[in-house]
Each structure stands twice: as structure tokens, then as C-alpha cells.
Write a structure and sequence with these properties.
86 residues; Rossmann fold; three-stranded parallel sheet; 4 helices; globular
């Protein structure tokens, strides 16, 4: 019944959980990306990623690090650096 963003918020907010959230989505939209990060997601990967990339992403997030799909990384940097978006 929940969407991925609300599920992420609840998982991250649970004090008894040490789970990290990796969002895997078809939504290659900045608004969804930034909402996912604001909700507490540790990673954001697009569904067009290959199987090796998915496995690597799960390992990265499970180890406590963060990961962004290469396709969105430039946009995140541009937004936080104040660069005009392309």
C-alpha cells in the first residue's frame, strides 16, 4: 500500500532497524531522486542497470556507504554546486 518513498521513510525512522535502503526505480526524475535522498535512501539506481551493477550497489549500501546511479550523479553535483542544469 506504500510507495517507495514512504516505505523508505518508515524503514529509516525505525530505531530497531539497521537496514539501509537502495531505491531501484524507472523514475529518472530529479524530483524523485531528491525526495528519495531526503527520505533517507542510501542509494539510488535505475532499473536499466545491469545485474553486476545491482549486485555491486547492494554491497556498497550494505557496507554503509552511499551510491548514486552514474546517470544522475552529474545532476546531483550540478544542483549542489549551483550550476545550471542541462
Amino acid at each position: 500500500v506504500l510507495d517507495g518513498l514512504e516505505a523508505t521513510r518508515r524503514i529509516v525512522a525505525d530505531p530497531d532497524s539497521s537496514a539501509a535502503v537502495l531505491i531501484v526505480t524507472t523514475f529518472d526524475r530529479d524530483d524523485y531522486l531528491f525526495q528519495a535522498l531526503a527520505a533517507g535512501a542510501s542509494g539510488f539506481l535505475l532499473k536499466n542497470a545491469g545485474p553486476e551493477d545491482l549486485v555491486a550497489a547492494v554491497r556498497v549500501v550494505a557496507s554503509g556507504d552511499a551510491l548514486l546511479a552514474p546517470e544522475v550523479t552529474r545532476r546531483v553535483i550540478a544542483r549542489f554546486a549551483g550550476e545550471p542544469e542541462h
